[in-house]
Amino acid sequence: MTSHTTATDVRTIVAAQIEDLKTIRHDLHAHPELMFQEKRTVGVVARELDALGVAYTAGLAGGTGLIAHIPATDQAPDRPAIALRADMDALPIAERTSKPYVSTNTGVMHACGHDGHTTILIGAARTLSRVPDRPNPVTLVFQPAEEGGAGGKVLCDEGVLLGERGGGIGPPVSRIFGLHGWPDLPLGHVATRPGPLLASTDDFEIIVRGRQAHAAYPHFGRDPILAAAHVVTAVQSIASRSIDPLDSIVVTVAEFHAGSANNIIPESVRLAGTIRTLGAQTRVAARERFIEIVERTASAMGCTAQIDYKEGYPVTNNDPSLVEHFFAVARPALGEDRVRVVEHPSMGGEDFSYYGQHVPACFFLLGLCPEGQDAYPKLHQPDFDFNDDAIALGVEMMCRLALAKP
Asked: Helices marked H in 200-263 — which ranges?
């Protein structure tokens, strides 16, 4: 951070707007939108940027992506930009909270805190527009469709990191930062790690086909439910018997759909789930073993298996030098005891990973759990709500990273 823009300046600017930012967050929470449907949400973002006079390009990634640009105060045309990213979409979950701003969109809620992430980036835009000295151009990435739609990949493919000459706005991006509210981290703390932080996310769908029969005469059929049940059990051997015990892998069958009556053995069963890994070789080995086990197990039961295996998000790899830069910015500002190194990667996934395939990237965690509280509702749970008290630190950290000299 430059000598002209002190930590006090940033905190004062953030503090002056925090109540308004909470109101924005509550409004976004009450009006959640699923991936690639974030029209109202991006409208709120555009309204706030218009009020600031910040230039932006909307209509990206199928219509709901937006990128904005705040120039350096010296207007240096050749200096590369620092990008800050927030995701905006919600999840198909029915909310179970008693908050006055509970979701008004039945069956949809902000169960992953993207309302908080979007609000933080709006707050960063407000704050950066007001600081007296900005040494770096800043690109703000408001991204749709993180929850399965790979909105980050879509924006990268559209050239948002390449600057105005490549499909973006302003100069090319040289580095990018993103954050995620984290229920397992205490409020007032931030954390990250070099290398893998989050896992790759491959998905699968299996149709096990047999022969339909009366439930009283199973010998006339081929029971796909029995075969599918054995498949569910057998694929767990990938983690226990096919992968190094010191490696990391999760194989989860999350859907099992079959049958129409209690006296009919159905013709088919549908299974679906996900496989999470941290290493490229493990990812390949898991896919090969999964297909082999599913096909052979179904065959052993007299059935067949049709597998649709979808390669999902890559591992979220943090650039080591950028992580060191993050720590160098965060520790003097927050204190050593409030800046942590994440000991082990999480098996959750993030499409922030796609940005890191183009420019150095650093994704960090923002604490949500109040001090002294044993637990906080977890991500993707119906009682989750982003902690308003984390907004100020989220805005401050984004601004510090944008203002710090490379």
From this structure: 224-234, 237
- Contact by Cβ (8 Å): 259, 240: no
CATH code linked to domain 200-313: 3.30.70.360
Asked if domains 7-198+315-403 and 200-313 share a fold, the reply is no
Residue 72, H or E segment: none
20: tokens are 């308004």
Beta strands in 95-172 (DSSP E): 138-143
- Written as one letter, the residue type at 45 is V
On the CB side of 110, CA atoms within 13 Å amount to 30
Q: 0.70 cut: is pTM over it?
A: yes
Query: Which residues in 337-403 belong to E strands, given as ranges?
Result: 339-341, 361-369
The length of the chain is: 406
Kindly give the pairing relationship between strand 361-369 and strand 173-186: parallel
Q: CATH assignment of 7-198+315-403, given 3.40.50.1980, 3.40.50.920, 3.40.50.170, 3.40.630.10?
A: 3.40.630.10
Which distant-in-sequence residues (6+ apart) come within 8 Å of 361 by Cβ? 175, 176, 177, 178, 317, 318, 319, 322, 352, 355
pLDDT tens for 58-99 read: 999 999 999 999 999 987 777 999 999 999 999 999 999 999
CA 249 to chain centre: 19
The number of angstroms, rounded, from the C-alpha of 178 to the middle of its chain's C-alpha atoms is 9
